[in-house]
Design brief:
15 helices; 22% strand; Immunoglobulin-like; TIM Barrel; alpha/beta
């Protein structure tokens, strides 16, 4: 009898355990999967996704955590919990979902914040960003090239739109190369999961916002990369996309509600005319089509006006900052998203991390339009984007012309630069503009291999980029003169870095693997970058420039007792210039040439070779 009773008890325990584990298996996603105690914002949204859980009663086995609200979207497979953590300490607890006699127990954790977690140092004008597309930089772990169960299961390095196998381990393996070059930050194109059936290599169709794409590595590998980069003096900037996601994202395939996506989740193409956001005369139709329209059919447009969507996205950013310790975010297609929500996002992130920085992709045609999107813009007032840094696309467009055409007596060449910079009064803070010669969406600075023979063009361009106002960004491969034309497709802009794959015939990560011309360009850029790291006049100093004369453009960067003066000859012939008009920035008769390291005596005249570049340092 006793044995029968024991058997019955055992069976009941087993059955109860079966019910719990079977119910638990219905939970497909918990987002975020953990959080931290002691955040400045005490509210936490926990999104639960699982078969038929929407009618569940919710309880917590937690200390000092208050369930403020349980939201049950129209899709019964979702629950949204809003928790007040204001008095809660670090702890492990259970979220229990009860439906009739069935229980689902979800373990959850509030972690202790690391010391100094809220003091993450952002990037600024003292930094130079190095932009990397992870799939195209280096393959450090071939074992993750193809991941069973993911939709795109092929490596094809000959195909511009296919996966090539680059990963986080490849970047990790070449941190010494990146640090030695002299840049101070790495900007990675998106690393979050892109489980799409094709063209998933670029990362801009996210299917899980909380998961690193397994073909690139794991969440823990990313956190380790950030840690190791920091140990080498490199910051890490993470690419994020709030405007849209991938159509294979579970939030789209099984939507919490129709209004999680714009146009009631029905594909409607964006006009891409985001100037309508700032246009005082814009029609409501044009504004809606630009902001609410979908980027592509396979990139549905998230509705940031839905407060649950907004909170989900805001929390995701904060989760990555807290978890991985990143130093910045680059927000893709910033003006395509809702202005007010994006302003709220910037405010929330910078409220938690005051020294952090965010740069928005603001691909617009004029400095006036771009200035509208920067924090403190008078042109947007009384609205404020709260976005500290914007991308200076007109600057990039200038660089495609000024180093090729001669600087005349009245226009062309460096006159374009002078006139553009003279309009910096439209910006709230021109020192916080992200400046660049090219990136993953544009033609490279050199469009074809033949043009790379002209190193004077390279020297002038990188000198100007690294010594004028703003936060410079270099695209991977610029240092070895990689060339590509957007007319040949995006795949051409995103080719593999030579030497990043086992069996590559050349290894441009080493001097021996580079050509003589590549080494000359690499050496010049490296010397300039490493000098810039220690130059506060460039990072924080004022900018004063002179109207081009006789084809020569002259400008000064000055801070306290340090002065840097740059001479750029915009003509294809030697120029001898009178120095009297420049005396206000020439405080001494002698200066140090920071590239040639020679002492230059400045008398009445100065001769510059054709397309010559001269950078002088004064101690005043």
């Amino acid at each position: 009898m006793k044995s029968n009773a024991m058997w019955i008890i055992t069976l009941m325990v087993w059955f109860a355990g079966f019910q719990t584990s079977a119910a638990a298996s219905m939970i497909k996603k918990v987002a975020p999967s953990f959080w931290w105690a002691g955040m400045k914002n005490p509210e936490l949204q926990v999104l639960l996704y699982g078969d038929g859980i929407g009618s569940s009663e919710v309880s917590l086995s937690a200390n000092d955590i208050v369930v403020k609200e349980v939201v049950r979207p129209e899709n019964p497979n979702y629950l949204l919990l809003y928790l007040d953590l204001g008095k809660a300490g670090a702890q492990k607890f259970d979220i229990t979902l009860k439906q009739n006699k069935k229980k689902t127990v979800i373990p959850y954790e509030l972690r202790e914040r690391a010391a100094g977690a809220g003091e993450v140092e952002g990037f600024d004008a003292s930094d130079v960003l190095y932009l990397i597309m992870p799939d195209r930089f280096a393959n450090g772990d071939p074992s993750n090239d193809v991941v069973p169960g993911m939709l795109e299961r092929k490596i094809d390095r000959a195909y511009g739109f296919g996966r090539h196998g680059g990963d986080l381990k490849g970047i990790q393996d070449h941190l010494d190369y990146i640090a030695d070059l002299g840049v101070t930050a790495i900007w990675l194109n998106p690393i979050q999961e892109n489980d799409m059936p094709e063209s998933s290599y670029h990362g801009y169709a996210i299917t899980d916002y909380y998961q690193v794409d397994r073909r690139l590595g794991s969440n823990e590998e990313f956190r380790l990369l950030v840690k190791n980069a920091s140990a080498k003096g490199l910051k890490v900037v993470m690419d994020m996309i709030f405007n849209h996601c991938g159509s294979e994202n579970y939030l789209f395939k099984d939507k919490p509600s129709k209004d999680w996506f714009n146009y009631d989740s029905q594909y409607t193409q964006s006009s891409f005319k985001t100037a309508s956001q700032s246009d005082p005369h814009a029609s409501a139709y044009d504004q809606k089509r630009a902001v609410d329209g979908w980027f592509t059919r396979v990139m549905p447009d998230l509705n940031q006006r839905n407060p649950h969507v907004a909170t989900y996205l805001i929390q995701n950013s904060i989760w990555w900052i807290e978890y991985a310790g990143i130093n910045g975010i680059r927000q893709d297609t910033h003006p395509y998203a809702d202005f007010d929500m994006m302003a709220r996002w910037c405010e929330a992130v910078l409220g938690e991390y005051p020294a952090f920085n965010i740069v928005g992709e603001t691909w617009l045609g004029s400095n006036v339009q771009i200035s509208y999107w920067q924090r403190g813009s008078r042109l947007a007032a009384p609205r404020d984007s709260n976005l500290p840094t914007v991308m200076d696309f007109p600057f990039m467009e200038l660089t495609t012309r000024v180093f090729d055409e001669p600087t005349g007596d009245w226009d062309g060449g460096f006159f374009r630069v002078y006139e553009y910079l003279s309009q910096d009064f439209v910006y709230a803070d021109p020192t916080r503009l992200l400046t660049f010669l090219d990136n993953h969406d544009t033609s490279r600075f050199y469009r074809d291999e033949a043009d790379t023979k002209n190193l004077d063009r390279f020297r002038q361009a990188v000198t100007f980029l690294l010594t004028t106002r703003g936060i410079p960004q270099l695209y991977y491969g610029t240092e070895i003169l990689m060339a590509a034309d957007k007319a040949d497709g995006d795949g051409a802009l995103r080719v593999d870095f030579p030497g990043g794959w086992a069996g590559d015939t050349t290894d441009a990560f080493t001097a021996a693997g580079r050509t003589a011309r590549q080494n000359e360009a690499f050496g010049f850029l490296r010397e300039l970058l490493r000098w810039r790291q220690h130059n506060q006049a460039i990072a924080q100093g004022t900018l004063k420039h002179f109207l081009p004369q006789d084809g020569v453009y002259v400008y000064e960067r000055k801070l306290g007792g340090e002065s840097i003066v740059v001479f750029l000859n915009g003509r294809d012939s030697e120029r001898t210039i009178e120095l009297d008009r420049y005396r206000e920035v020439l405080p001494d008769a002698k200066a140090r040439d920071i590239i040639g390291r020679e002492e230059i005596t400045l008398q009445e005249r100065l001769t510059l070779p054709a397309r010559g570049t001269l950078i002088l340092k004064f101690n005043v």
